[in-house]
Every structure is written in C-alpha cells, then in structure tokens.
Amino acid sequence: GVSLGPMQPLVVASVPARHVYTRHLAHPAVPVARVATPAATYRATQMISAEWVQVHAEGIDVAHVHFGFGDVTDRAWREWRAALAAHRIPLVYTVHDLDNPHVDDQDRHHRQVAFLCRTADEVITLTAAAADRVRQRTGRRATVIPHPHVVDLATIAATDRPRRETFTVAIHGKDQRAG
Fold this sequence. Notes:
Layout: E1 10-15, H1 20-24, E2 32-34, H2 44-47, H3 50-56, E3 62-65, H4 74-86, E4 91-95, H5 107-119, E5 122-125, H6 128-138, E6 143-144, H7 153-157
C-alpha cells in the first residue's frame, strides 16, 4: 500500500485557547495543534476580531468557540464571522452555557448564543438536554459530544498512583466567580 506519512495536525483557533476543555477536545487518531495566544494578554476579543483573522488565517483549519466571550460586541461578532467566511475557515460552536452564570442580565449572552448557533458551521452541546434547549431557542440542531476528560490521559492511565483507605474529593476554587 501507499504510505502517506505522518498526518498533519488539524490547526484549531480555540476560544478560550488554553482551557482544559479545549486542550483535551480531540479525537485520539487526529493530531491537533492549537493557535497560541500570549498568556498575559489573552481576552476573547484578541482572537474574535476581523483583524486577528486577517493576520492569522493562513494555516488555520477551524475556529472553535466554547466560552469566555462576554466582552465581544455584536459588531465584532459579525465582522469576525465574515472574515472567517472570507478565508473559508469553518466555525464550530460548543454551547457550554445556555445562561451565563457570571452575569445577572442574560440578554447579551442569549443574543450571542443565538448568533453563534445561527452562523456556526457546526453546533455542539455536552448533553442531550442542552441540545433540546438549543433547538427550542434557536431552531438549530446540535451534535452532542460529552465533556472530555479534564485530567491528562497519562495520569488517568497511571497504575502507580498511591492507593488510599479513604476517598478524597478536591474542589477547584477557580477564581471565585459567581456560579
């Protein structure tokens, strides 16, 4: 047979770029490379702009939005989506929060979710119940892909982890935001 050599990684521009979900969202048989953003200056608006797409479009295979975009304006969304389309970069949107637990007024968040559901090439949810809500609210059918692991696979597979007599649960305090 013909050997095609090593598979080139799928280059994904993810928002958020460094979250554990986006780092672990991949099929084991498909290598993935994430577009990096400077850690000290990251905000969603850094990547969700037409200017960013113009500069970085070469080599990006897909854009993936998950969450972390509350500061993006409606105009920026429209311009960014048009820039992605102009460069033939498909958009995948994972509906993580039907309601944003970090804000009291949901109007802006609901408007953003509706826009992304209407314009994305593929919409993903983490549960069937969320997919039903997306369909009810936006008319869009979503693919259900359960939440991936949050611990790296080497740690999960490790057989030399210490065994304990008691069961311990750790709760991540994150940054103490509401929700």
